[in-house]
Amino acid sequence: MLGNFSYHNPTKLYFGDESLNYLKDELKNFGPVVLLNYGSGSVKRNGIYDQVVAILREAGLTIVENPGVMSNPTLEKLREGIQIARENKVDWILALGGGSVCDYSKAVAASVFYEGDYWDQFWLKQQQPDANQKLLPVGCILTMAGTGSEMNAGTVITDAEHTFKVGHVFDDRLMPKFSILNPKFTMTVPDNQMKAGIYDIMNHIMEQYFSDFDDNTSDYLSEGLMRSLIVSSRIAVKNPQDYEARSNIMWTATWALNTLIGLGKHEDWMVHMIGHSVGAWTHAPHGYCLAAVSMAYYRRAMKPGLAKFVRFAKNVWDVRGEGMTDKQIAEAGLEALKKWMLEIGLPLTISELGATPEMIPGITRGTICYPAGYLDLKPEDITEILTESM
Ligand code: NZQ
Ligand code: ZN
């Protein structure tokens, strides 16, 4: 384990089909006016909204509602939420939804008391709030597994006007104070979103795993998480109501991106950079955008990262490797990944998401490029990857 690091994750988790019972205990830790952020209606249709609001009312809280947080939340919606929070002098924020609602809530929480241009400061300039800036506390009730937003400080926002999607990872003051993870809440997630979430989890692990060559405990944890996800995903796509599989997927999602498996690692995240730009142009589910560019990306990364791809093939996909060269083993690992993606029903091309050749220059421009993982890509490489992914 090389590298120096500190580790602190302040998010308290409540997990399981009875986890919502703990919400009333948490309410005692926050003020009386809560901003309740939620999406475009699923929580009303499946009854989760009613359960949550009953608990908030019982505790005598004033609820300020902010519905309509869309998938891939926009800057325009962020501005609206900040205004609502300011006007109503809310004490804290409760996110009720998937990663989009959780991300959005942290973004509002970071910006309410910032007097300047928060978009420029936090997302375009990637600055952290000053030590003395007030931030609102956030709690999450998660309804979809995938992003890990429930236990990290990530906030991905789309500037729809400029077709630009960008994430900012805040410092740990913006991590949710608590998150409630009830796998039963994820049972009503549409089939395509469940699959997108599964690949998002897989790719979060891969983004951290495919960097460096030292022997690092983080990689063993990653391999275990990937193996668990492969098993549970195969069960969940056949039977989405399988509680055991859905609960494992939800728990894996949290550990895939709560900073643990990135410890001591340089990490990659270029599939996410390309995927975010594809998402800004196509509005496709986040995990689908990652899936659609992954094969072209990892085929490229395999050459400089060969030893790690051999390990991936053997330890994650059980490629035995006897009588094979390292290159053949690594290729067999990527082939196994591709077979699993097809089995799950994931898109392998960006054209399936509605991308056209005319969009490629714009998607390339919107991709943030930096040396990462085993590659140092330039815009022309991004164009090639996108063209191969058509
Ligand atoms: O709008 P509602 O009604 O809530 O419907 C949502 C949405 O349409 C629906 N849904 C969620 N839970 C449901 C449900 N439908 C029925 N029953 C339920 N229980 O599913 C759709 C997708 O939800 P969304 O929250 O958008 O999905 P996800 O959790 O994948 O979040 C995606 C966002 O997170 C960002 C992505 O870029 C994207 O903007 N990410 C955040 C990260 C982080 N914080 O670290 C990292 C990720 O890499 C990712 O970039
Ligand atoms: Zn992701």
Can you describe this structure?
- The chain has 390 residues and is α/β, with parallel strands linked by helices.
- The protein has two domains: 12-186, Rossmann fold; 191-388, Dehydroquinate synthase-like, alpha domain.
- Helix content is 47%, strand content 12%.
- The chain has helices at residues 23-27, 42-45, 48-58, 75-87, 99-111, 118-124, 191-209, 217-238, 243-256, 270-282, 286-302, 306-317, 326-344, 360-365, 379-388, and strands at residues 12-15, 33-38, 62-66, 92-97, 138-142, 154-159, 164-169, 178-181, 371-372, 375-376.
- Strands 1-8-5-4-2-3 form a six-stranded parallel beta sheet, with helices on both faces.
- Strand 9 (371-372) and strand 10 (375-376) form a beta hairpin.
- Helix 7 (191-209) packs parallel to helix 11 and helix 12 crosses helix 13.
- The relative contact order is 0.11.
- The model has no long low-confidence stretch (mean pLDDT 97).
- It binds 5,6-dihydroxy-NADP and zinc ion (ZN).
Determine and state the CATH class of the largest domain. Answer: Mainly Alpha
Bound molecules: 5,6-dihydroxy-NADP, zinc ion
In helices, the fraction of residues equals 40-55%
Q: How many structural domains?
A: 2
| Percent strand | 5-15%
Uncertain residue segments: none
> What is the number of helical segments per DSSP (H or I, 4+ residues)?
15
Radius of gyration: 20 Å
The structure class reads alpha/beta
Q: Termini separation (Å)?
A: 39 Å
